[in-house]
Structures are given as structure tokens and as C-alpha cells.
UniProtKB/TrEMBL annotation, chains A, B:
Thiol-specific peroxidase that catalyzes the reduction of hydrogen peroxide and organic hydroperoxides to water and alcohols, respectively. Plays a role in cell protection against oxidative stress by detoxifying peroxides. It comes from Baudoinia panamericana (strain UAMH 10762) (Angels' share fungus). This is Thioredoxin domain-containing protein. InterPro entries: PRX5-like, Redoxin, Thioredoxin-like_sf, Thioredoxin_domain. The active site is at C58 (cysteine sulfenic acid (-soh) intermediate). Residues 15-168 form the Thioredoxin domain. It comes from the Eukaryota. One of its GO terms (molecular function) is thioredoxin peroxidase activity. SUPFAM superfamilies: Thioredoxin-like (SSF52833). GO terms for biological process: cell redox homeostasis; cellular response to oxidative stress; hydrogen peroxide catabolic process. Keywords: Antioxidant, Oxidoreductase, Peroxidase, Redox-active center. The lineage of its organism: Eukaryota, Fungi, Dikarya, Ascomycota, Pezizomycotina. The keyword Metal-binding does not apply. Belongs to the peroxiredoxin family. Prx5 subfamily.
Length: 170, 170
């Protein structure tokens, strides 16, 4: 019965250990084409879901991943993918403003929110941002499968999803 | 019959000469509160609807309004309101990047798209931007009533909505 209700509501179980990442491709630098399929990345990668480009908590959290990128590389991490429900013009402008230029760090636009919804990580941020956005989480994935995931109880908080905290789990 | 279809589709007649502006308030600098009610502005004002913060056409068009702001003021224009279906963090970051700091120029966030939809100026920009956005238009309004409105046939174009073109109609 609950699965029927879930189906009607369109809700999905959130990412958890053992989950496969959604296969929906995401946009990086080209707003006209979604080119990055996170489910097909090889090796160890980090997915960082954030509620909103240019919001103060996200703008304080994300640079930590760029600063620590070499430390992640030493732990055999191939890429760090920041995923936001924003359009690609906005995510790239945000990346530029943050100066997060390390080659390991990618900013991805889930502009229609489909990836985040399929990952069960969507929440209603209408009050502050006008629509549904991504919860704040960080996931360690390997060959498209979630090994560990850390999700903030409150989207504005940056505790378990801070770069230095995630590093300790590698 | 067509009105029934329109009603089912939720479409609204676009702004035209004599239209009243929607009464939905919009956000300016405070993302937590919509404080600007365009329908209640006194005197002559300009509304500039744009498809997307940080997109190249909008980023080339909007600075023209800041550059010409003194010319608009000489024509008794009290304010120029740039309205985008983006959240307020994004519109304010965009304003900062453009350096559009003239006191006449305001950047407003229609973050849930309700104002733009009520104005009949919404279009499906899912392919490039992930959701419905604002057509590109410029409206001369007086005490909340549209006096003239100029809308681009193609949202990426900047022809009739350029600041210098609109100035000539004042």
C-alpha cells in the first residue's frame, strides 16, 4: 500500500549505501546538451548535492572541495561533481565567481530537477527559492554505486557534508 | 471553445496596451520576502522581462538600461525593473556581476514564475534552462497600467527591447 502511495506521489527512496545513481545525464558547460552521466563514471567519485547556486551556505561549502581537491585525488578520487537544480548558465557563473577551477571539480546543472528527483534528494524550497531543489548531501560513489552518503537534516547546514568531513571517510 | 482550451492549459493573454500588471509581489534583495508590488508603483516605470540571469543575450541587453538610466530619468521614469524567473540569490549575484548599480535599476526575482505567468509572458524554456521562463519584453507602465509593450518574437533576440529603442517611445 505504501508503495502505491509513493508511486502516486512520485516520491523515490533517497540515495543510500548500495543505491545506483540515476542515469539522467546532466549539463556541464554546454547549456544545450546534457553530457555527463554520473552513473557511468569509472572509479571513485564524489557527488555533492547543493540547494542553490549563489546562496551563502553553498558558497561557503563548495570552495572546501576545491581547496581539498588534491587531498581527494590522493585518496584515488577521480572527480568531484557539484550538482544543483539551477540552469547551466547559473552554475557556471557561480563556479567562476567561486574560482573553483581545480580540474577535479565539476559543476553540473540539473536544470529540470529530474536527476535530483530520481535520486530521492529533492525537497520543496519554494519559500526561499521558488521551486524544488536538492537537499544538501555528499555521496562517495564507485562505478555508479553509492558507497556512503551524508545528508544534512537541514539544507542550510554544512556539517557532515563539509569537504574535510567527507575526506575522513575515504 | 478556445477559451475553454485556454482555461485548461492555464494560459493568459499577454500584457498589452491597457493591461493592468499582476498584483503578485516580487522579491528584490531579501530572498525570504516578496516586497515589490509592481502594480502599485506610482508614475511612469519600465518593466524589462528577461529569460535568464547570466545568459549572454540578457547580459548584453540589461546593462543598456543602467547606462541609459539618466536618460530614462529625464523622461520622468521613476524606476526600471528587470524581472527574471530566477531566485533572488541569482538575480542579485547577476546584478553585482553586471555592475548595474544605478539607483533607478532594480533586479526582481519572480522565483516561482507566478508573476510572469499571470502577465501571460511565460514560455517553455525547458530545453535550454530547464523550466518556464519569461519572454523578453519591455513595457512602459504608468500607475500599474501598461502604456506600451515591446516583445521579442524570439527570446534570444534583443531588438525592440533594447534600452535605446524603448527610450524613443517615451
Amino acid at each position: 500500500m505504501s508503495s502505491i502511495i509513493q508511486s502516486v506521489l512520485g516520491s523515490v527512496s533517497p540515495l543510500t549505501k548500495g543505491s545506483k545513481l540515476p542515469t539522467t545525464p546532466l549539463k556541464e558547460t554546454n547549456p544545450e546538451q546534457a553530457t555527463v552521466n554520473l552513473s557511468q563514471l569509472h572509479g571513485k567519485n564524489i557527488i555533492v548535492g547543493v540547494p542553490g547556486a549563489f546562496t551563502p551556505p553553498c558558497s561557503s561549502q563548495v570552495p572546501g572541495y576545491a581547496r581539498h581537491a588534491d587531498d581527494f585525488a590522493k585518496k584515488d578520487v577521480k572527480g568531484i561533481y557539484v550538482v544543483a537544480v539551477n540552469d547551466a548558465f547559473t552554475t557556471q557563473a557561480w563556479k567562476e565567481k567561486l574560482g573553483a577551477n581545480h580540474q577535479l571539480v565539476h559543476f553540473l546543472a540539473d536544470d529540470n530537477g529530474e536527476w535530483t528527483k530520481a535520486a530521492g534528494m529533492s525537497f520543496d524550497a519554494s519559500g526561499l527559492l521558488g521551486n524544488h531543489r536538492s537537499k544538501r548531501y555528499a555521496a562517495i560513489v564507485e562505478n555508479g554505486e553509492v558507497k556512503e552518503v551524508f545528508t544534512e537534516d537541514q539544507a542550510p547546514e554544512v556539517t557532515v557534508t563539509a569537504a574535510d568531513k567527507v575526506l575522513k571517510h575515504l
